[in-house]
Amino acid sequence: MSSAGSDDKATRAQAFVQGLVSPTQALGGHRELGTTALARRLGLTDEQLGGHWCSRCSGIWYGCMLEVECPSCGNRHG
Ligand SMILES: [Zn+2]
């Protein structure tokens, strides 16, 4: 039974990467990479879009929760 708080930051970072945390809350400044073609075709509202971090672009793009590919550079690894 060691300290239970040590994994907390990693868990929150993971939640952010997976789009579970609003990127505007998590980051003060970032690039907006746009919305995926699929999300636009589905006509998703802002509430239905998930923010995804792209480390290659150092920015946020928006799409369905299941989407993983940055619409700007095609990076699929966050
Ligand atoms: Zn990218």
Mean pLDDT: 81
Q: Please give the share of residues in helix.
A: 25-40%
| Beta-strand content estimate | 15-25%
Kindly state the number of beta strands.
3
Q: Strand pairing plus helix content: what structural class?
A: alpha+beta
Low-pLDDT stretches: none
Could you outline the blueprint of secondary structure elements for this entry?
Blueprint: H1 8-17, H2 23-26, E1 31-35, H3 37-42, E2 50-54, E3 59-63
Parallel strand pairs: 1-3
Antiparallel strand pairs: 2-3
Zinc ion binds at residues 33, 54, 56-57, 70, 72-73, 75.
Descriptive account of the structure:
- By secondary structure, the protein is an alpha+beta fold.
- It has a domain at 29-78.
- Helix content is 26%, strand content 19%.
- The protein contains 3 helices and 3 strands.
- Strands 1-3-2 form a 3-stranded mixed β-sheet.
- A hairpin with a 4-residue loop joins strand 2 (50-54) and strand 3 (59-63).
- The longest helix is centred in the N-terminal third of the chain and has 10 residues, at 8-17.
- The protein starts with 7 loop residues before the first helix and ends in a 15-residue tail after the last strand.
- The relative contact order is 0.20.
- The mean pLDDT is 81.
- Zinc ion is lined by residues 33, 54, 56-57, 70, 72-73, 75.
